[in-house]
UniProtKB/TrEMBL annotation:
<protein>
    <submittedName>
        <fullName>Dihydropyrimidine dehydrogenase</fullName>
    </submittedName>
</protein>
<dbReference type="InterPro" id="IPR009051">
    <property type="entry name" value="Helical_ferredxn"/>
</dbReference>
<dbReference type="Pfam" id="PF14691">
    <property type="entry name" value="Fer4_20"/>
</dbReference>
<dbReference type="GO" id="GO:0016627">
    <property type="term" value="F:oxidoreductase activity, acting on the CH-CH group of donors"/>
</dbReference>
<keyword id="KW-0560">Oxidoreductase</keyword>
<dbReference type="InterPro" id="IPR028261">
    <property type="entry name" value="DPD_II"/>
</dbReference>
<feature type="domain" description="Dihydroprymidine dehydrogenase">
    <location>
        <begin position="57"/>
        <end position="109"/>
    </location>
</feature>
């Protein structure tokens, strides 16, 4: 009779039942059921609340003091041209900030407006 090299303890089945199971197939939900669930999300809550102010055509939060051409050139000259460019990594719009600032410094305003 062949000798058993290793034996699992008796509790191995109990331990294995604790492991989460991987789903082998996708779960299907009807569109109507999914729309009902989405109504419960916070971002999809009722938009017609009486306390909310209408934000359409409301530009009160826009900064009224924008930079002039001279001010933009002065700020572009302050750029350190970092190798790792932390401003590039933190930009939420994924704008190429290094080339943007370089274009401002070179007075290539049309290139800046296109980006």
């Amino acid at each position: 009779m062949a000798r058993v090299l290793s034996r699992d303890p008796v509790d191995i089945e109990n331990i294995l039942t604790l492991n989460p199971r991987k789903q082998m197939h996708a779960t299907l939900h009807s569109t109507a059921a999914k729309k009902q669930v989405k109504k419960q999300w916070k971002r999809n809550s009722d938009k017609s609340c009486p306390n909310c102010e209408k934000l359409e055509n409301n530009f009160d939060d826009i900064k009224h003091t924008t930079l002039s051409e001279r001010g933009a050139l002065r700020e572009a000259m302050r750029c350190l041209k970092c190798a790792d460019a932390p401003c590039q990594k933190s930009c939420p719009t994924n704008l190429d900030i290094k080339s943007f600032i370089t274009s401002i410094a070179n007075k290539a305003i049309i290139i800046v407006m296109k980006s």
